[in-house]
Amino acid sequence: MMPCLESPVFYLSWSLVVGGALYFWQQTRVHTPYGRYTCERTRCCSARLGWFLQEVPSLLVPLLLLLLLQEEETGTSPGTSTGTSTGRTLLLCTFMLHYFHRSCIYAFLTRGRPLPLMTVVQAAIFCSVNGFLQSHHLLHCTHFPHSWSSSARQAGGFLLFVVGLSINVHSDHILRNLRRPGEVVYRIPHGGMFEFVSAANFFGEIVEWCGYAVVTWTFPAFAFAFFSACSIGPRAFHHHRDYQQRFEDYPRCRKALIPFIL
Ligand SMILES: NC(=O)c1ccc[n+]([C@@H]2O[C@H](COP(=O)([O-])OP(=O)(O)OC[C@H]3O[C@@H](n4cnc5c(N)ncnc54)[C@H](OP(=O)(O)O)[C@@H]3O)[C@@H](O)[C@H]2O)c1
C-alpha cells in the first residue's frame, strides 16, 4: 500500500498530508476567501466558469492517462483483460464520476456568487496534481488480484463512497434550491442530512473520499481523504458559526459536521 521511498508518488502523497495539515491550521485563523467569505475587492470570475475550470483537470488528467495506457496495452497484448486492469479502470471511473459531476453538472447548476480568480487558479493546480497522483498510482503502481472486488473491505468502501456521494449531491441540491436564479441570500437549509449538521454537503464529501480510500487501499487515496477533511472540515465550523450568528431561530440541536458528535 505504501509506495517506495524513491517514488514521486510517495513525496506527492506526503505533500497532500502536510499541505492538508497546514491548510487546516491556516483555517483556524482565517476563512478561505470564497463564497460568503469573499473579500469585496477581489478579482472574480463567474461561479459556473470558475467551478468548471478548477475541477475539470481532475476529470481530464485521469481520462488521458487511462486512454494512453489502454492504447499501450492494445499494442502489446491485444484482447487481454486481467483482474488488475478491470479493477483499476473501475476505481478510476469511480474517481472520475465525482469530478464529472462537479465540473460538468454542479458547475453549470450553481447559483453561487462569483469565485475569486486566485481560488480558481489554486484549485485548478491542486486538481491537476491530485488527478495525476491518484490516476498514475492506480494505473501504474497498483496490482489487484483476480478476486479484488469480492472482499468485504472493498464492498464496504464502495458502499461508503456511494452513500457519501449521494449525501453530497443531495445536500448541494438543497442549498441550490434555497435561492431563486440571480438571488444572493442565505437561508436555513432543511431536509436530508441538514437536519443533523450545518455542512451536510461537506460531511457527504468527506464520507465519500474515506470510502474511496478504503476501497482503493492506497496511500495517495488516504492522503487525499485526509486533505479533504482538512480542507472542508474547518469550513463546516465557519458555516455553523455564521448560521448561528445570522439566524436567531437556527436549530439548536444541529451539529457542525458530524451528526450527534461535532
Ligand atoms: N474535496 C475538497 O477538498 C473540496 C473543497 C471545496 C469544496 N468541495 C465541494 O464543493 C462543493 C461546494 O463547496 P463550497 O465550499 O462552495 O460549499 P458551500 O459554501 O456550502 O456553498 C455551496 C453553494 O451553496 C450556496 N449556499 C451555501 N449555503 C447557503 C445558504 N444557507 N443559503 C443559500 N445558498 C447557500 C453557496 O453560495 P455562495 O457561493 O454565494 O456562498 C454555493 O453556491 C461542496 O460539495 C464541497 O463538498 C470539496
UniProtKB/TrEMBL annotation:
Its main location: endoplasmic reticulum. It is a multi-pass membrane protein. Its EC number is 1.3.1.22. Residues 114-262 form the 3-oxo-5-alpha-steroid 4-dehydrogenase C-terminal domain. It is an enzyme of class 1 (oxidoreductase). It is found in: Endoplasmic reticulum membrane; Microsome membrane. One of its GO terms (biological process) is sex differentiation. It catalyses: 5alpha-pregnane-3,20-dione + NADP(+) = progesterone + NADPH + H(+); 17beta-hydroxy-5alpha-androstan-3-one + NADP(+) = testosterone + NADPH + H(+); a 3-oxo-5alpha-steroid + NADP(+) = a 3-oxo-Delta(4)-steroid + NADPH + H(+). It holds the Pfam family Steroid_dh. Keywords: Differentiation, Endoplasmic reticulum, Lipid metabolism, Membrane, Microsome, NADP, Oxidoreductase, Sexual differentiation, Transmembrane, Transmembrane helix. One of its GO terms (molecular function) is 3-oxo-5-alpha-steroid 4-dehydrogenase (NADP+) activity. Converts testosterone (T) into 5-alpha-dihydrotestosterone (DHT) and progesterone or corticosterone into their corresponding 5-alpha-3-oxosteroids. It plays a central role in sexual differentiation and androgen physiology. Belongs to the steroid 5-alpha reductase family. This is 3-oxo-5alpha-steroid 4-dehydrogenase (NADP(+)). It comes from Solea senegalensis. The lineage of its organism: Eukaryota, Metazoa, Chordata, Craniata, Vertebrata.
